Amino acid sequence: MRFTWDAGKANFNLQKHGVSFQEATTAFRDPLSVTGYDPDHSTDEDRFVTFGVSNQGRLLVVSHTEEDKVIRLISCRLATKQEKKIHEEG
């Protein structure tokens, strides 16, 4: 998998959510990760949300697009308690 992102957005995301985009890329390697279409944020482009456990053991919610097999990260944050519960219950 190849990843790309805007450096300014990555810095802002780290400050706001405490999650680096580098860590976010590792959530895609989680064999139990789940990706879904995000219709609420797909007005200008198709966006997706992936829930996956990072290499630091944190459940992340990653917003992204994909074009020509390159994933462009938009934002990433820790999952909420409710999202963790849903993920754990499968």
Automatic annotation (TrEMBL):
InterPro entries named among the record's database cross-references: BrnT_sf, BrnT_toxin
Domain of life: Bacteria
Pfam entry (one): BrnT_toxin
Protein name: Uncharacterized protein
